[in-house]
Amino acid sequence: MAVIVLGIAFLVSSPYIAYSIYAFLLLLILSHVSSVAWLARLDCSRVLSSTKVCQGDSVKVEVTVCNLRGWPIPWIFLEDLYPASCHRRGPNTRLAILMPGHEVTFQYELTFPKRGYHRIGPLIMESGDLFGLQRRFRTGEQQDYVSVLPTVAYIDTFNVASKRPQGPVKTANKIYEDLSLLNGVREYELGDPLNRIHWKSSARTGELFTKLFDPTSVQGGTLILDFHGDSFVAETADRRQELSITVTASIAYLLQASGEQVGMITNGLDAAEQAQWEVSSSKVEAKEDLEESIMGESVSSRIRPMQVLTQRSLIQAQQIIENLARIIPGRGLDCTQLLLEEFRGLPRDATLLPVVPYMSESLAMMLGEMKLSGFSVTVFFIDDKYAYEEAAALLAQHNIHSFHIREEADLHEISPQRI
Fold first, then answer.
1. 90 dihedral zone (left: phi>0; alpha: psi -120 to 50; beta)
2. Alpha carbon 123 to chain centroid distance?
3. What distance in Å separates the CA atoms of residue 65 and residue 45, rounded to the nearest whole number?
4. Bigger pLDDT: 112 or 28?
5. H/E stretch holding 20
6. Alpha carbon 256 to chain centroid distance?
7. In the chain, what is the straight-line distance between the N-terminal and C-terminal CA atoms, in Å?
8. Where are the alpha helices (DSSP H) in 59-165?
9. Res 90: pLDDT
10. pLDDT in tens, 41-94
11. From CA 87, how far away is CA 384, in angstroms rounded?
12. All domains of the chain, ordered by start, with CATH?
């Protein structure tokens, strides 16, 4: 349009129109150059007070933007994105003038009411020319994530006499022998170790005798969390998913506090694998385009289950709880396929503790076969009053005990001895 008007100015020999077009084109070029240049070479950083918190805890966020250019930025508007479910104290936006080599800093605080893996950022920067003809938007390259740990219900043990209710328990199969539980003696056989010889009986009879011990095993458990998306009814999915995570975390904490081995395996997905940890800075002219480019996350193609190996360790429960903080529903293996896939790697000296929202005939049959093969099995069924009776009937055919967890309070009434 400017070229057309300029051509008309030459045709009618009007220097004033030509001068106006020249001034307009110069203004347009200056506006474009300044709006692009002012958002270049800006160093953005974000510091979080913590990246792992419990539900209801707060995190302090500090954002700093530094102008590395040799010219000032007349105006810049900064907005740091955060999850909509969080409660914010303090402004997450700032309007500022940035001189060369100077920086601007603002702080705010976020409270996280829900478990999950929450993204903070990126920072959106908006600037433009002094004449208001053009505006430019740019995102920062840094994104940070906060893991909000699930609730842990402390299972009461006041009604159990033993201080270690899971304790060393006798087993039908002789897996290990407890050297502290002497059962008797027998005649010495070639190959018996010297530390097994009962010297008092040998000295009294004149013949060598070997000690016999009771076979025991510190059982503990391997938690099997069914977190397949199709296992939960849509209307109650969120509540039942959070309850199943609370059950898993609570049992893990109980087993570790009792000195037992504990592990976990689940068909859920790890949200950290879908998170875009490194995002290239993008520049656009419309804020709507910018929001569309930063809202999506990558799609995980993971099929292998999330797993924490079953063992005795002071950090086992913490590892399981941190994994549960990031877990999201999966669409790969269902619970039956999960057990078939991991059957060979499951330790037989640990009780199988499936936490399931749905019990199919194939899953009940699979658990029954695993019990026949030597596993101890106890099932935790997540709140479904209509389906629990059917699930309990399916499990009763295989002599498998189950708990119906309708709410968090039910965990406080569970006897560890029964588990």
1. left
2. 24
3. 7
4. 112
5. helix 15-38
6. 20
7. 81
8. none
9. 94
10. 788 899 999 999 999 999 999 999 998 877 788 888 999 999 999 999 999 999
11. 32
12. 42-149 (2.60.40.10), 172-217 (no CATH), 221-268+305-412 (3.40.50.410)
Residue corresponding to tokens 């020319």: 129
Question: CB neighbours of 381 closer than 8 A, spacing ≥ 6?
Answer: 356, 357, 359, 387, 388, 391, 392, 402, 403, 404, 405
CB atoms under 10 Å from CB of 409, counted, come to 9
Tokens of 102: 């100077």
Here the contacts of 76-79 (C-beta below 8 Å, separation 24 or greater) are 76/38, 76/39, 76/104, 76/125, 76/126, 76/127, 77/125, 77/126, 77/127, 78/104, 78/106, 78/123, 78/124, 78/125, 78/126, 79/123, 79/124, 79/126
The model's pLDDT over 269-285, given as tens digits with 9 standing for 90+, comes to 888 887 754 455 555 55
pTM of the model: 0.73
Q: Which two tokens stand for residue 195?
A: 């530390």
Averaged pLDDT, 304-311: 86
Q: Does 190 have pLDDT greater than 60?
A: yes
Encoding tokens for residue 252?
Answer: 């893990």
